[in-house]
Design brief:
The complex is a heterodimer. Chain A is mainly α. Chain A is 67% helix and 0% strand. Chain B is globular and about 60 Å long. The chains are: A mainly alpha, B mainly alpha. Chains A and B meet through α1, α3 and α4 of A and α3, α4, α5, α6 and α7 of B.
């Protein structure tokens, strides 16, 4: 497949905008091509760099506690009734 | 709460890959460390795309839940953690917006002068350094590419919406956005092998 098209597919993969046919093509190609794997990874890094331009906003302090609590399986305590 | 131990200090300084390994071993403190590092940018990104506080919180929560559940699937050999997290958040945000088309009014103009407001000096330095490099690379894009990328990335429009907004076919919109990303990468100068000499641009 021509390289220009592969570059575009790698960009589509990093952006998450591949259509189903493109995805099948590109995933199959990735298996055999370390260069495209590296390209896709470096495009992912650029996406992260772009995110550096976004405003960093601290979420409300309650979110941290909520997230940490959600990681734990519900404690085995007295049976709960609904 | 217990006193901070040497181990706690180690965790705060550990790199992302080491923290992910701890998460595989079910160490919640590693999640806390990654939360301290990434919740601000992730929340900022989610807010930017969804424009709704409640949705942005849901997205950040989902990202960390996924991180906890699927830590074993993260392979540091295949790339840094930050892009993985940001991509995850962005996809979740776009999905959410698609489902809730009416949660926001799409503004006619995208604010191109996005300001970074980090709360921590080291984080700020890191942000500024990378932000500067990216801004310089953005200047190398064609106007058409930059506008398309702004709409897709910073305003969080779907590619269909970008095409509609610009009055161009979907294929053209996708090509512009993808070319913009490729060109940024080429200008950010990460050296890569065989594909390096290929043209970044394609028209069609």
């Amino acid at each position: 497949m021509d390289h220009r098209r592969l570059r575009m597919l790698a960009a589509g993969a990093a952006l998450g905008d591949l259509d189903p046919a493109e995805r099948v093509t590109f995933v199959a190609h990735l298996m055999t091509c370390p260069a495209c794997r590296a390209l896709k990874a470096s495009l992912g890094d650029v996406m992260a760099d772009l995110a550096c331009l976004l405003p960093e906003v601290q979420p409300p302090p309650t979110l941290r506690a909520e997230i940490l609590a959600s990681l734990r399986p519900p404690a085995a305590g007295p049976p709960r009734f609904r | 709460m217990t006193e901070p131990t040497t181990d706690d200090r180690e965790i705060r300084r550990a790199d992302d890959a080491a923290l992910m390994a701890r998460i595989v071993d079910r160490d919640e403190r590693a999640v806390e460390a990654l939360y301290a590092r990434y919740s601000g940018p992730l929340y900022g990104l989610s807010l930017q795309v969804t424009r709704a506080d409640r949705f942005a919180q849901d997205i950040v929560q989902e990202v960390f839940t996924t991180l906890w559940k699927d830590a074993g699937r993260y392979d540091p050999q295949r790339g840094a953690l930050a892009p993985w997290l940001f991509t995850l958040a962005r996809h979740k945000a776009i999905d959410l917006v698609r489902r809730e088309q009416n949660i926001r009014k799409r503004t006619a103009d995208v604010d191109l002068e996005l300001k970074v407001a980090p709360d921590d000096v080291a984080q700020a330095a890191w942000h500024n350094l990378r932000g500067e490099r990216v801004r310089a690379a953005m200047a190398e894009l064609t106007e058409a590419q930059r506008v398309a990328l702004d709409l897709a990335f910073f305003a969080g429009l779907t590619h269909v919406e970008v095409a509609e907004r610009l009055g161009i076919p979907l294929g053209t919109a996708k090509t512009r956005i993808r070319s913009a990303l490729l060109k940024l990468r080429d200008h950010l100068g990460d050296s890569l092998s065989e594909h390096e000499d290929m043209p970044a641009e394609t028209a069609r």
